[in-house]
Amino acid sequence: MPNFEAQIETLKAGIRDVPDFPKPGILFKDITTLLQDPVLFRRSVDLLVAACGDRAVDKVVAIESRGFLFGGAIAYRLGAGLVPVRKPGKLPWKTIKASYELEYGTDSVEMHADALGSGDRVLIVDDVIATGGTARAVAELTEQSGATLSAFVFLAELTFLGGRERLPEGDVISLIRF
Ligand code: AMP
């Protein structure tokens, strides 16, 4: 029986803290140090897939841009389709949009209107959940499409920001807690 807790600790140790990025007062969790390590990158994907259990998944919805890095690998492993969610104006086809509150003003995310079907069981994947605003907006896109949300999946969770409480009812999987 592998020691999951010890393995998760190695992932946690592989994430670099960058103070005051992108602005003063933010402690940025830099996952590039984990990604560039062959053992840690594979381990992070393996553990995320294991944490998803045996749930049936048709599509992985990955959030720009660091969510693509894990979402693509998870979708491949699960044999699911991959759907990118992007900032406005980046996707070429007809899109649907959801907005969310920032400290000052609002921001939006877009997904192709035909990316999800009403029977699709969906995972929403990102690297980090902070306030939860982005993931919540992506859940709205999933709902607009008539798809079924199976779970949110994050490599890391900034628990002190309470993002999980802003998400709709359902499973929230996170490997690393800060
Ligand atoms: P959220 O506040 O949950 O909507 O976070 C939005 C996005 O910003 C997520 O995709 C995270 O990857 C990223 N993010 C927010 N805060 C941090 C942080 N302290 N370190 C790294 N990424 C962050």
Summarize the structure in words.
By secondary structure, the chain is of the alpha/beta class. The protein has a domain of 124 residues: 3-Layer(aba) Sandwich (Rossmann fold). The chain has 6 helices and 9 strands; from the N terminus they run αββααβαββββαβαβ. The strands form 3 sheets. A 5-stranded parallel beta sheet has the order 4-3-7-8-9, sandwiched between helices. A two-stranded antiparallel sheet has the order 1-2. Helix 3 packs across helix 4. The longest helix has 14 residues. It is globular. The two termini are 25 Å apart. The mean pLDDT is 96. The protein binds adenosine monophosphate (AMP). The site of adenosine monophosphate has 18 residues, from strand 2, strand 7 and helix 5. Adenosine monophosphate (AMP) binds next to strand 2, strand 7 and helix 5.
